[in-house]
## 1
Amino acid sequence: MKTVLFDESGIINLKMFGIEIPSLKSRKTNTLEALLGDSELNESKDTWLVVTNPYSIKREDLERIHTAEYVEKLYSEKVDVCIKNAFELEKPDGTFNRYNPEQMEAPLSELFNQVLKMSSGTYYAAIKALETGFCYYMGGGMHHGHKDFGHGFCPTNDIMLSASRIISEKKANSIWIIDVDAHKGDGTAEIAGDFDSIRTLSIHMAQGWPLDEPEYDSTGKFNPAYFPSDIDINIKSGEENTYNARLVKGMKQLENLNGIQERPDLGIVLLGADPYEKDELPSTDSLNLTEAQMLERDKIVYNFLNDRNIPAAYTMAGGYGSYSWEAHYNFLNWVLKKK
Ligand SMILES: [Zn+2]
């Protein structure tokens, strides 16, 4: 049985905080509307659509993956600074970046609460996947949240919050994280480095954010964007035609990391739509998969996990502008009709 979680209360509304990033609520609502516009899926919606999530994320969950200092800041008045840094709302010269505080309807501390609410959906998807084999969450994918700071719109890391909680609750002994978002899953790579039971694959743009600065700065300081995943696949501009073949090869390497074929108890997938050629975030211009390549990518990931009977939780991850929902819809329309 397949489940899709659409939890309206977990949708982050950046606009209400004066943040001008084209991460639109319509990506989720358009995807859902298109699915419900299909008569077959509409008739069966009671079997796959879930709209409430009973779980929440607590401080102890954050403490499993972040430093004590960072968690302390998130639960103090310094949360505003953490959020500003994570969403890059201020430039080094103090001017605002994609941010208009005059439009603010609620304080940034409330945005942190929304992030936690959103993150709880990823945990729901993981639990549901363990029970039923497949759950897709219309949210999640904050893979740039590091141990002691957030960036790339990610004050925390819902993927690692969920994976580490599942492990600590002994609901699974081993987890793979497969990240096909356009951006490298740098925070996930750093945090997962502390967990022997969690393996990571990230396929992403070779150039561009977060890999737009050198690995070491002029003082020799390591750039945390370069924390290695177990498998990193760097796609350069113009290499789109090799993308899916290299993804297959990477997943085979992931299952043979220890020299023998292994199978985890759970997969968590970041099915970002930002590699799509119609995605509108300027920083993803160097990776442009067609609609057909996107759907092929998603089928590759799904079939790889499904053929091995690996329960899998899917998150939406990145996707920006007016068209990214098409990629999410194409996958769900295919997977929900698949017998
Ligand atoms: Zn992304």
Note: The chain has twelve helices and eight strands.
## 2
Amino acid sequence: MSRRKQTRGSCVFCGREMAKSGLTRHLQSCEARAASQAEANQQRGRNQQIFHLQVVDAYSGSFWLHLEMKGSATLEELDGYLRAIWLECCGHLSAFTIPPYRFTQIFNDGFSIGDEKSMNVQVQKIFTPGMTIPYEYDFGTTSELVINVLDVREGKPHTKRPIFLMARNEMPQIPCMVCGEQATLICLDCLYEVDGPCELCDAHWETHEHDNEQYGGPMPLVNSPRTGMCGYAGPAEPPY
Ligand SMILES: [Zn+2]
Ligand SMILES: [Zn+2]
Ligand SMILES: [Zn+2]
Ligand SMILES: [Zn+2]
């Protein structure tokens, strides 16, 4: 997947659909979002910091999420969300890099010189608007993401959950190598044995020369930057 035209997505508040950069601007000024926030702010309880995050895949930029995250939620909760919606294949390690630290699953708790720290830290202690945070899932076949901290508001969240999904990209156009229509799967014989184009639509999979039997079938293409990596087969759905 090379750099093609920007993927599109729609605003969860007003339903308007637009390209990646337009949506980033739109969310700052969406009237339906402002109204929804005002309504959320009527709820009882204390105000808190709520961060607007844009998560983007570092490779193509075609996959992206706009999230609202409670300041009291932890990096571990963000990691869990990213695994659920985009990444989890076989329980690999992951890390957020916020110099001088790496927040990851194996850490020393300050007992040695290591720069590794636990992800069990509230994001309001470390996030500030303008930050760009590299994130890696799987240190072998790595999926690299970037978390842009776009903004912070003081108020009440839209949900009791740690994270609220405001927008995500629609499935990028990945053409079938035969007909150019949207591909739905990857032929693993083509990928691993032939090392050539490997994307197919359902119709052309039916008549394709390979059966992928040794791999247990072809790999579905899903709306995730990990599609096609390490056997990742989705479902690429938000956890809540
Ligand atoms: Zn909107
Ligand atoms: Zn894996
Ligand atoms: Zn086709
Ligand atoms: Zn093939």
Note: Residues 8-168 form a domain with the Structural Genomics Hypothetical 15.5 Kd Protein In mrcA-pckA Intergenic Region; Chain A fold (CATH 3.10.290.30).
